[in-house]
Design a protein that fits this description.
Four Helix Bundle (Hemerythrin (Met), subunit A); alpha/beta; five-stranded parallel beta sheet; 2 domains; elongated
Amino acid sequence: MYQFNASIKLLSFDLDNALYDNRATIEAAELSCQNYLQSAFSNQGVHFEYEKFWEIRKQLVAQNNPAFDDLTYLRLTVLIEFCKPLNAGETIAKQALAAFLQQRSKVDVEPTIQSMLSLLVKHFTLVSTSNGNCDINQTIIAPFFSKNYFPVGGMRAKPHPAMLHQCMADFSITASQLVHIGDSIEKDGGVAEAIGARYLHFAPFESDKDLAQSCHELCLQLSSL
């Protein structure tokens, strides 16, 4: 059905809201973190006001510190500041982070997406390039990907080109041999433009379009390149 261009060697996929609907997962992770903190504050008789967590986060993000591209590091930094009124606050902050991360990777990947990846991995090397902190190795789609890139260890988040530059170096390919696919025109489209690669917009969970149709259209777009 599809005739893919043999000159394209690698597909880079965004994860959140491209390969699964991330909204319910984030809500569950946030609730788990909040519930843990509320219990910890209550146990020490300290007033709990979770709005301050978001105020601290907003202030830190406004610093434009590249280290905060790593969302796990950002969250831990916010939690440590938020938990300062508590005894053993840093330990509690780390445990609250663990509560968040435990839920963060419990994503529900639709069989249609799995089928699409199963098809594409026969023709291309697949990697994931995500700004988020879902541990893809805990998901059902982990085997499809040869490598996974996240803004950790000093790596910058999309649309900064660092992750895709590293990808090209790792697989010894040029930008013309790579296609990046994701739901954010600003971040995913931006990073592709930054390295001179092609970009395909894929946001199957942001519209009423049938998921199977969205996957079919993506494969058709790949075929036309």
